[in-house]
Amino acid sequence: MIEIQQEFLKCMRCGNCQAVCPIYKETKMEAEVARGKIQLIKGVTEGVLKPTEYLAEKIATCLTCLACQENCPSGVNYEKILLYGRDYLAKENGLPPVKKAIFKVLRKPRLFNFGLKMASRFQGLAMKKVKGRSGRKLRFGLLEDHENRLLPEFSKETLVEKARSKQTSGKEKLLYFPGCMINNVYVNVGEAVIDVLKHNGAQVVVPEKQSCCGTPARVHGDIESAKSLGRYVIDTYLATDADYVITSCSTCGVTLRQGYVELFTDEPEYLEKAKKLAEKTRDINEYLVEKGFIRPKKLNLKVTYHDPCHLNRKLKVNKQPREILKAVLGGNFREMKKPATCCGGAGSFSLTHYPLSKAIGRKKALDIIETGAEVVATSCPGCMLQLNDALAKQGSNIRVFHVAELLAEGYKEK
Amino acid sequence: MEALAKLEKILGSAKIKTQTEELFVYGYDATAGLKNQMPLAVVFPESTEEVVEIVKWANEYKIPLYPRGSGTNLSGGTIPAAKGVVVELNRLNKILEIDLDNLTATVEPGVIINDLNEAVKPYGLIYPPDPGTVTTATMGGSVAECSGGLRGLKYGVTKHYIMGIEAVIGTGELLKFGGKTVKNVTGYDLPALMVGSEGTLGIITKIIVKLIPAPVAKKSFLAVFNSIDDAGNAIAEIIKNRVIPATLEIMDQTTIRTVEKFKNIGLPVNAQAILLVESDGYPEQVEMEAKIIRQVLEKNRGEVSEAKNDEEREKLWEARRAALPALAQVSPTTVLEDATVPRSQVPAMLKKLKEISEKYNLIIGTFGHAGDGNLHPTILTDETNREEWQRVEKAVEEIFKAALELGGTLSGEHGIGMAKNRFLLWEMGEAGVNLLKRLKLAFDPNNILNPGKMA
């Protein structure tokens, strides 16, 4: 509590966060920019404000892109305050029933995986394929704007299933943590990651015991679910003698590298393990550049890069993907005006705040289109989903790929 | 409340907020140490006509209005002092015209200053006023507070760039002051009166500003001094030599040490002061000025380094830009003042600040626009420490007394707002303050607009 009070006091209320907040740019509401949220959280924890649903909704209206934190002259740890606030409100108000139910399922990895498997079987009933794009559209109105909205297509076979037949050998032993999205939706990204690592002489294993990394629960204030998932992941991934754990999702990467250490500060046993896992974890871009990856053949493709917020701001991985892309594309790589601005996806934010998410995504899509690129690369399946939807809405043919997919393509070129 | 229901009817429910959670965050601005004050409602007008309606409504019910932009001011200018309605103008944010023949731009009050600069950049033009909050602050707020900034010495401040203003005065009448002509002596200089009026005379709905050609060349110097007097003499002598740099900034030892601690950029922690000087304009002129600047700095025992390219210039400026952020990180509360003296008195003021810091046992880092005498003594404190806060208030009082004694002013660029009300008499005298009050009543007979500020 004292620690968080110190953090509150650090905020000078200068308002510099307004200049970089994608949400504030859309709504221009003081309660929806970091300065306002910090005051609201301070107010509710000091008892000046009541923990109303309305307040919780205000605190929920955040992409956690952390642009404000990066731009803060006083060095306020906004993320810490925000998560504290969400945790506080979840305890005071309880979570909304839908979220509670979702996290309950998330907490049981086997049940969750079974559910996703079923989703892949039955998605055709609710969703139709979209020609020429990856993703599906809803046949009927479960979600807002369903006729126009591009949703993920669940793969028939998960990455874990596919990887079974892809056993590899090599000098360095790598464990791959694909995360929910890549294991179930963007399976081709996962395969590309494995191909790329194999090509660079590593042995890659995808453990059968997969689960969500826990971040969705954590950012919504369900710390217990997040911890339960954290323990599961830590135990699974420390159970072997792998040299590194590889991630290819921005958010999962941050969770394994930093999130668990923050989460388990009061559980010494798991804190130690979390630190060990953190040391071993590398984002795929980071690993390849650190080890010196084999140069690919050049692709004749104009490509731009979108920085996933967490990868860029939390892990500071932004030069590496560009180095890889330049190796694959040479002079065909082109920067967009503001590559580090949030795409508006932000995980479940795009589900719960669709109109806002769509407006932010639109700006991103226009930036991408302006570069004249044929492909936008990124390093996060969550961003891929949002970019696909945002570009489709602009009627653009620009395709969205993970950096690893383009590198894998470069290795295939003769 | 009947009045609010009527206001909602006028504006429509999307443009008015009355939930406690929404109101709470309009109870403050960037000023440290003032009490939060929640308004009754916040309204978001989207047209001039709506602003007129709001002011008429306020007159009918005698409810005060508090115009607001981004809330970045440092004088409590936008805090709703008595129960009233905040008029948030950030949705009136269109750049209406860039007139290349007359070199003017016409904007709505909610336009962010930096956005205007980005918009005129392709034409080789700039809008020079550049307060520290240039990426956040709105044009309307900047005009109402008459913001200054780093380029004040050569280019002047907001008041030198405002040619015309459209505003709704306190009666609800929509008026136009000035226009696009360079020369205009019709009646009193009303645009000038509106600039720096802190929202007490009218709600600004349109602004015509002057644009100027962007300088094509720049040269920047950093000079390290072991005595404050040497630094002060150098400032005065540069100008005596008929050179007006674009910027002439100072950082004192406390600031240097704090910046170095947080940024590790290799600043000399034993130096008494650092000066940053930048000349801009046409290459030949810059070349000539740079020569004189270097000579003066060296003559006054300054250790000079010059930026050879943009990258090195960026490095020099990094120290200055880091000043406030670094100071802000030392303690929970940062009281940033803007005591201003004639530039010849900068060394005397710096000495006085040192005495005050020792007398009240407070850390005061001073940096600022030495070239125009606008200093930012910044007190590092913790507002929850009551005993210390009392010392801070006394020190602040003494800082302003000192500035006035040296022929200076209470505020160079932050304004009076609520924060400096209590000192107003010192500078203006009773007759002066009374005249302000009568002027206010001429514009706003029912005292609807931003009451409790500058009074």
Protein model, in words:
The complex is a heterodimer of chains A (414) and B (455). In chain A, strands 4-3-5-6 form a 4-stranded parallel sheet. Chain A is α/β, with parallel strands linked by helices and 414 residues long. The mean pLDDT of chain A is 88. Chain A starts with a helix and ends with a helix. Chain A has 22 helices and 9 strands. Among the domains of chain A are: 1-93, Alpha-helical ferredoxin (Fumarate Reductase Iron-sulfur Protein, Chain B, domain 2); 295-412, Rossmann fold (3-Layer(aba) Sandwich), CATH 3.40.50. Chain B has 455 residues and is an alpha+beta fold. Chain B has 3 domains: 1-88, Uridine Diphospho-n-acetylenolpyruvylglucosamine Reductase, domain 2 (2-Layer Sandwich); 95-213, Uridine Diphospho-n-acetylenolpyruvylglucosamine Reductase, domain 3; 217-406, FAD-linked oxidase, cap domain/gating helix (Vanillyl-alcohol Oxidase, Chain A, domain 3). Chain B is built from 14 helices and 18 strands. Chain B has helices at 2-11, 20-24, 48-61, 113-120, 139-145, 152-155, 190-194, 228-240, 253-263, 283-299, 310-330, 346-359, 386-405, 424-443; strands at 16-17, 41-43, 65-68, 85-88, 95-99, 104-107, 125-126, 162-169, 174-178, 202-210, 212-213, 217-225, 247-252, 273-281, 303-306, 333-336, 363-369, 374-381. In chain B, the strands form 4 sheets. A 7-stranded antiparallel sheet of chain B has the order 15-12-14-13-17-18-16, sandwiched between helices. In chain B, helix 1 (2-11) runs antiparallel to helix 3 (48-61) and helix 8 (228-240) runs antiparallel to helix 10 (283-299). The radius of gyration of chain B is 22 Å and the shape is globular. Chain A binds chain B through residues 6, 9-10, 12-16, 18-19, 28-31, 35-36, 39-40, 43, 48-50, 52, 54-55, 58, 73-75, and chain B through 19-22, 24-26, 28-30, 32, 44, 70-72, 88, 90-91, 112, 114, 133, 135-136, 324-325, 328-329, 332-334, 382, 384.
